[in-house]
Write a structure and sequence with these properties.
The chain contains 4 helices and 7 strands. It is an alpha+beta fold.
């Protein structure tokens, strides 16, 4: 790849249809086990992975601090149902916001190298059906 193409691709955010990004999670439910349960996001489908971000604390206008999470479902349909069900829902005095998550291209992929990180969350292929945006577009 040319340097110009690498730079252009490294600035893109690609929508992941099986990934849900959620903000407004109360501390008492901000755990992988709770979010995976059928009481919470498990009711919308099979969750392959849940990553809760408790490092960045968001201060909700009411209800106190809240966290974010990335939820990976088995299918785009499950993700869409979860988003439609919980976006703008008030839980524990916090407004839940949910949307499809985005990812970037792996730097190893962009540099035509093999990525040895088996748990790499970044993209390793170009496909015609990818929906991508720059950070400014979003």
């Amino acid at each position: 790849m040319t340097r110009e193409k690498i730079k252009k691709l490294s600035n893109l955010r690609v929508i992941q249809k099986t990934l849900v990004y959620v903000i407004g999670i109360a501390p008492e439910i901000a755990s992988e086990e709770k979010l995976k349960s059928v009481e919470y996001f498990g009711q919308y489908g099979n969750l392959q992975k849940v990553v809760v971000n408790t490092k960045d604390v968001y201060n909700a206008t009411r209800g106190g601090p809240s966290y974010s999470a990335y939820l990976t479902f088995n299918s785009a349909r499950e993700s869409a149902i979860a988003i439609l069900s919980v976006d703008q829902f008030v839980l524990n005095d916090r407004m839940i916001r949910a949307s499809f998550g985005t990812s970037k291209f792996c730097q190893f992929f962009l540099n035509n190298q093999k990525c040895n990180n088996r748990d790499c969350l970044y993209l390793h292929e170009l496909r015609a059906d990818l929906e991508a945006y720059t950070k400014e577009d979003m």
